Amino acid sequence: MCSSDLGTGQHGAHFCEHVAGLRWQLSERPCGLEALRLSLKELGPSVAAMGAELLPALPLDVDALDHWPDQRYQAVFTANTLHIMAAASIPNLLRGSAAVLAAGGLLLIYGPFQDGGRHSADSNKAFDAQLRALDPAMGVRDALQVIAWADAVGLRLVGDQAMPANNRLLVFERQRLG
Question: In terms of DSSP bridges, do strands 73-79 and 101-111 run parallel, antiparallel, or are they unpaired?
Answer without folding.
Answer: parallel
